[in-house]
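Practice problem: predict the structure.
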Amino acid sequence: MEITSKKDIIGIIFLALSVIMLGYMFITPLNHYIMHIDEYFTMSITTLPLGDIVNVASWYVHPPLYYILGKVAVTLGAAIGMDSLHSLRLLSIIPYIIILVISTTKIRKEYGFLSAGLFTFSLAVMSEFFAHFLIASMYSWAVLFLLIVFISFTEIIKTNDKKAWIILTVFSILCIYTHYFAAISAACIYLILLAYIMKFEKDELERWAMSIGAALILFIPWTLPLINQMSQAHAISGIAQINLNTFINALGYIAYANDVIIGLIATVVLIAFLYIYIKDSKGSDEKERFLALSGAGVYFGTILLSIIISVVFKSVFMLKYLLPATAVMWLAISIVLGRIKNRKMFMISAALIAVLLIVGIATTFATNDEMYKNGVQQKQILDNITNNPNSMLIIPSQNIIMYFLDYADHSNIYFINVDHVFGENMDRLHKLYDFNTFNGNDIDKVIANNTQKNIYIISWGDPVLNTSTEKLDTQAGIVFSKVKSTNTTTIPEEETYYEE
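Answer:
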């Protein structure tokens, strides 16, 4: 690993900072708290038998692969005395470790230290990457799988290696079974590859068709569950309607656009950066320019296809769904920066990237602080429920049952009596967990019969009661409250909640 320039030194500094960020992922106080409401769902579903996990996932909004990996992680962790939360945290960190290895070997070898270092550092501090390399959800694995798809795509363009076609196919399938928006990004890669083949390598059209055909065939077993999930998409909560603000925030998500101004600034910076590269690379090999700009094609293509689906079909778009495509965009930015030859152009480009990094780092610190405060508050609430024998918990909302099913064996808990929860028969759940049930109209009786207890309620929206409650916390529409006094109670209209 010969160090030949100041660019290499900067890249090595970025790599060192990336290793420090990896170390911090293991010791951050966030690891001791629930950071996002979806982690409750993950922790509950991974306590189910494997067959039940697949069944529940088929009624949820995501494919099953991550939850299967989560079950394996929780099982292995339990064997060495690790609790489920820390096992799932480790599962989410593993992709960043693999990305670091890929960056310090393959990306460093092909594109230099600067590209490798900037890429790994950006994945630690930009957008919502740091949080999602910790949160017990599928996003970190979707990021890893899509990056491998993109890297194999670059290998096909450079060497047309048969092994690269196999890797492209296998990891595209893994994207499909991990997150549907990672699958959309993989589809963008296939479309860009098709454009390349039609322009430069028409003889490879057969391989392209075989690859995409194999991916589609291997997805057939999940076709019916996908149709079932799509049929329920109208009930999804937490999904914003598509408008101009959404579009601008999506374009600026490379810096985590939490408002339109930041989104607009990030978009302008990105466009200016790409313009500088196009101008600087005039006269360069056409295939090389195509390859360098293809990452932007994946990013913008994912945004465009996602918005089209949301407008034509129904709104299914959330900004964080762009994380895998954003990782590809940052890899492309890192590669492009390393290839800019003109010193003046490079300095301008580096300044533009620095602006994005400053915004991203500031947002990451603010987001982590907010998650920490929310995590501490929710842990105190749930500790009061599980550690106090004089406390009880009431869940009056059907789908929230699955989010807090993991607490059934650790607290005096009452679920609203329904036929099923995410496809799981209530009788089946009774055999697996210890909990009480009540009919919806009898919640007032449950409260009246337990006036001597500390009664907590977790509901979708504010509970509609004739008795007063104290709101303790709220996250993504789910409200944690405590009953102050008892009287007649009515149940709010049920609303399906999916957010992840």
